Amino acid sequence: SFVRQHRRRRKTRVHEVDVSAFKDMPESLRVDLHVQVYMPSLLQHPLFARYHRLGDSSELGLICHTAMSEKALFLEHELFAMGQRATEMVFVTDGHGEYRSETMDGRLTERAGVHHMMFEAALWLHCYH
Fold first, then answer.
1. Can you give the pLDDT at residue 10?
2. For the chain, how long is the longest CA-to-CA vector?
3. β partners of residue 106
4. Cα(59)–Cα(37) distance, rounded to whole angstroms?
């Protein structure tokens, strides 16, 4: 069945929502955890990397704690629907993602692998997929 196939393909990876103890952890410890988990991805972006090199990373830590999260997708599942408002940037940390869109010349498919960013425009503009 579909579910059995995807269970076999899915890598075993623990996410924060899977560990109930994280909910009871002190806020300062959760902030530190989020910085450890998300900062490497955030620093892939040139603006945030430059800001980090300037010396004060407390705001970046706040971004890690309040604005970043994990999302695991099964093979062939969609991250968003065409026409949906783009509200978040995506950092690919495992596997790859494909973005398919219609252009004047036909269909366009872009691939993003590990350490790639997708949908950066969502940070700066009101845009749609």
1. 54
2. 53
3. 103
4. 16
